[in-house]
Amino acid sequence: MLELEGVSKSYPLRRWGRTISHIEALRNLELSVPAGAIFGFLGPNGAGKTTTLNCIAGLLEPDAGTITLDGEPLMGSGGRDALGFLPEQIGLHGHLTARETLAFYGGFHRLETDELESRANESLERLGLGKDGDRPVNGFSLGMRKRLALAMALLHAPRLLLLDEPTSGLDPRGVAALRELLRQLNQDGLTIFLSSHVLGEMQQLCTHVAILNRGQLVLQDEIEAVRATVREAGLRATLRVGGFEPEQLDDIEALPSVHEVRAVPDGRHTRLEIRLRDDDTSALATALVELGLKLYSVEPHDPTLEEVFLARTEAHD
Question: Which residues contact 198 (CB under 8 A, 6 or more apart)?
Fold first, then answer.
């Protein structure tokens, strides 16, 4: 388990060579990432996500607090060997081949030559680069560069993989391939901690999520528990109706089961987007018919991760 306890980090604000104040990036952050999880770390721009990742990876030292993996501090070199890190910005030497890149990087982890060669070949094959191992990196596409950087992060067989915006710049096919690869790695026992703005992708992939806003944690739970919490606050449903008149909107909003409603023209019909106070869509449908509307379809839907994200970050602004 990865645990952050009381982690704080600020940056000096300088003017004319003098520190005039500090910008607080993280404030007493408490975070628990279960072993074996795919943990999604969300937050608006400037929330402190990259600062958190850099602190975990050892690229930044927190001003206060502790970071441990399975009870052991991550600040020592032994702890760092348990981590693999794929930053958003990938720095690769274009004149090196993929295999040479892995050999160079493996030296930082003190891998023996035979073991390094074996792991490099295995990583390249697993990431679909087996036939490209002897090609210079400057001829790689962005997707291939991402896969090579991931191979570098996995070369020393870490227990925890950190990913910062891993789908950035990838086309839909590349995103789908990365998603499937991360699932396979997780099934093999790897704990994955990733930060991303692609909320739909996080919803498909993650087992747990946390939301950070202005350096503070506003939510942390299993993703299904997060959905259930929002669902309790009101299911959403989309209904296609005929015969709707704008003046009927007040009558619909006055129904006991309706929390809020929005009417959207939909060809010859109207689409009613309704947030309910309960999950009884059949009672709502009956009430709409009694108001004189013709009902063509009812489509209830679970809250999305985007709705959870917006609700939590707006509530803490």
Answer: 167, 175
Instruction: Convert the pLDDT of each residue in 247-284 to its tens digit.
Output: 999 999 999 888 889 999 998 899 998 888 776 788 88
CA geometry: angle at 87 spanning 66 and 4, to 5°? 15
Residues 90 and 105: beta-carbon distance below 8 Å: no
Percentage with pLDDT > 70 across the chain? 91
CA 157 to CA 102: how far, in whole Å?
13
Look at residue 178 and give its three-state secondary structure: helix
Segment 123-139 shows an average pLDDT of 91
Q: What is the pTM of this model?
A: 0.77
Using CA of residue 287, residue 292, residue 298, residue 302, what is the dihedral sign? negative
> Is residue 155 within 8 Å of residue 120, measured between CB atoms?
yes
Residue indicated by tokens 């909003």:
253
Choose the final residue of a domain: 215, 230, 245.
230
Task: Note the residue count of the chain.
Answer: 317
Residues 28 and 43: their CA atoms lie apart, in Å, by 16
Decide which of 170, 204, 230 is a domain's last residue: 230
Confidence of residue 197 (pLDDT cuts 50, 70, 90): confident
Residues 292 and 180 grouped into a single domain: no
Q: What is the reported pLDDT for 22?
A: 86
